[in-house]
Specification:
The structure is a single chain. This protein has a single domain, classed as 3-Layer(aba) Sandwich (Rossmann fold). Helix 2 runs parallel beside helix 3. The protein is globular and about 45 Å long. The chain is of the alpha/beta class and 200 residues long. Helix 5 links the parallel strand 4 and strand 5. The two termini are 28 Å apart. 36% of the residues lie in helices and 24% in strands. The structure holds S-adenosylmethionine. S-adenosylmethionine (SAM) binds next to helix 1 and strand 2.
Length: 200
């Protein structure tokens, strides 16, 4: 579902970009992929994450997909330059990715799977579009963070069928996504990299 204005404001803030910069540094230290990779970011928001990721990983192709036309427009309207030629921002639903199987070397998720009413389907779609050996780079948050009594009032998220760490990690394993050691997790969030090792 589309985010409301307070979350949109946060996602477009400098604070969010600093957090994403740190997360991409972690991704690179944990599982660097060679330059030239084909990358998909689900829920790309304003495209800020695309800029940070592309600068650190040098992909040959970077697709940012978001369900919100306003976000796609902002992302597509960012400052253009030679290094932006390979970036494409498209309107689409992370529960029904408009790509064939094994189309990408990496999929990036900066905290959007908890926005999906059918989040397991979102994880299954990530696994489907990754090639075997491809990497899923993710930051994801859990209900004690986004659905606590304060944020429940301020933010808009699906309320049914939510996941915490055990369910999220089990869904990764069910889809043949093997979590690499060294991931960071608390009751609030998880930051990790998973490799597509097998189709269940
Ligand atoms: C919390 S924001 C994160 C934006 C960006 N990834 C970031 O970290 O700043 C969640 C984003 O996911 C998008 N989103 C929500 N549901 C989606 C869906 N079903 N398919 C694709 N994008 C979706 C929203 O429009 C929003 O841009």
């Amino acid at each position: 579902m589309e985010v409301n204005w307070p979350e949109r404001f946060y996602c477009r803030s400098f604070v969010r970009k600093i957090a994403q910069w740190r997360e991409v540094s972690y991704f690179r230290a944990t599982h660097p992929i060679p330059p030239g990779a084909r990358v998909l970011e689900i829920g790309c928001g304003d495209g800020g994450g695309a800029g940070i990721f592309a600068r650190r990983f040098a992909p040959s192709l970077y697709h940012g997909l978001d369900v919100d036309p306003a976000m796609v427009k902002v992302a597509a309207g960012r400052r253009q330059g030679p290094d932006w030629d390979n970036r494409l921002f498209v309107l689409g639903d992370a529960e029904r990715l408009p790509y064939p199987d094994a189309a990408f070397d990496a999929v990036v998720n900066f905290g959007i799977i908890h926005h999906l009413p059918d989040w397991r389907r979102g994880v299954a779609e990530v696994a489907r579009v990754l090639r075997p050996g491809g990497a899923f780079y993710f930051e994801e948050i859990y209900p004690p963070l986004y659905a606590n009594p304060l944020f429940r009032i301020i933010l808009a998220h699906p309320r049914e069928n939510r996941f915490h760490g055990p369910e999220f990690r089990a869904a990764l394993a069910d889809e043949g996504l093997t979590l690499l050691p060294g991931f960071h997790e608390s009751c609030l969030f998880i930051l990790g990299v998973a490799i597509k090792t097998a189709r269940p």
